[in-house]
Amino acid sequence: MSVLITGANGFLGYYLTDLLLQKGHQVIATGRGECRLPFHGRQDFQYIPMDFTEPAAILSVFERCKPETVVHAGAMSKPDDCELNQELAFNINVQGTANVLQASEKHQSFFILVSSDFVFDGERGMYREHDKPNPVSYYGSTKLQAELAVQQYIFDWSIIRTVLVYGRPITGRSNLLSIVKEKLEKGEEYCVVDDQLRTPTYVEDLATGIAAVIEIKAKGIFHVSGEEVLTPYQMAIRTAEYLKLDSSLIKRVTAADFSQPAKRPPRTGFVIDKAKKQFGFHPVSFEIGLEKTFNGQK
Ligand SMILES: NC(=O)c1ccc[n+]([C@@H]2O[C@H](COP(=O)([O-])OP(=O)(O)OC[C@H]3O[C@@H](n4cnc5c(N)ncnc54)[C@H](OP(=O)(O)O)[C@@H]3O)[C@@H](O)[C@H]2O)c1
């Protein structure tokens, strides 16, 4: 199957491209600027620069490639950046999604949006797919607006929401685990909140969930995350212990004493029964996720 990925240079983009190639799909990786992916020279892989805030560029790429499936993974993904640059965040996350949807419609592509637990307010936690979104940050609001646009798409669509993704960043953004390693190796303190609950997601599990959705053409909204409920502080401590680094450098803070531009939902985390039932999704434990992230790097 031909799969076009947006934001393919990102953290998830690398792992998703790698997995889809392993599974025998034809991957059209698109991203901002030059290719940062190491898959050149393969017959089943091509990289095309495509900024999805430019409708004409998207239309011409789609005309050339006619993708059967589109995974819209590209986004302005950091909540604080979105809070501080709202016009840009709207243009990328909301208008950008509308642009990709428009081109997909011309080719009747199966459209998959990667979305976030930040569409919820975090008052209750352990959300199911049908729970009512109510974002508390601008990032969350842009992801929800993108979801609502996808739900108007006239051909097949799926929305895959995920939670606090971790793993080894090959391309794209850093994450809690990689930041802990970096800071503690330099002997720097790191303040981490202990009053937010999440079900952190190992990046390869997320890629596996997306690949399954593509292969069985699962339609609708799916929650795809880990199963263990942890605070970011607990994750940081376990990372330090796993790496045998000085965990006393990790300072426990609460959201109230930690000033960040974007408000975070206090308790998210997902019930993943639907993904388990419909496509056999089985995430690794956080312990195994740690091993996979750092194997050979201790
Ligand atoms: N990481 C998490 O914890 C998490 C949690 C929930 C949901 N998500 C969602 O998961 C998806 C993947 O995120 P990620 O973790 O892989 O983040 P990432 O590393 O920041 O990847 C996002 C990619 O989108 C690209 N992008 C941004 N604007 C673009 C544009 N106008 N045209 C083309 N590409 C553009 C970025 O390009 P540059 O590399 O040039 O900046 C980046 O490579 C996003 O939709 C995010 O909202 C992530």
Bound molecules: NADP nicotinamide-adenine-dinucleotide phosphate
The CATH topology turns out to be Rossmann fold
Strand content is 15-25%
Termini, distance in Å? 38 Å
Shape: globular
Write out the CATH superfamily name.
NAD(P)-binding Rossmann-like Domain
Sheet of most strands: 7 strands, parallel
Q: Any idea what the radius of gyration is?
A: 19 Å
Chain oligomer state: single chain
Please, how many helices?
10
Summarize the structure.
This protein has 298 residues and is of the alpha/beta class.
Fold blueprint:
Layout: E1 2-6, H1 11-22, E2 26-31, E3 45-49, H2 55-65, E4 69-72, H3 79-84, H4 86-106, E5 110-116, H5 138-150, E6 157-162, E7 165-166, H6 176-185, E8 190-193, E9 201-202, H7 203-216, E10 220-223, H8 232-242, E11 250-253, H9 273-279, H10 286-294
Parallel strand pairs: 1-2, 1-4, 2-3, 4-5, 5-6, 6-10, 7-9, 8-11
Bound molecules: NADP nicotinamide-adenine-dinucleotide phosphate.
The site of NADP nicotinamide-adenine-dinucleotide phosphate has 27 residues, from helix 1, helix 4 and strand 5.
How would you describe this structure to a colleague?
With 298 residues, the chain is an alpha/beta fold. The protein has a single domain, classed as NAD(P)-binding Rossmann-like Domain (Rossmann fold), CATH 3.40.50.720. 38% of the residues lie in helices and 16% in strands. α1 links the parallel β1 (2-6) and β2. The radius of gyration is 19 Å and the shape is globular. The structure holds NADP nicotinamide-adenine-dinucleotide phosphate.
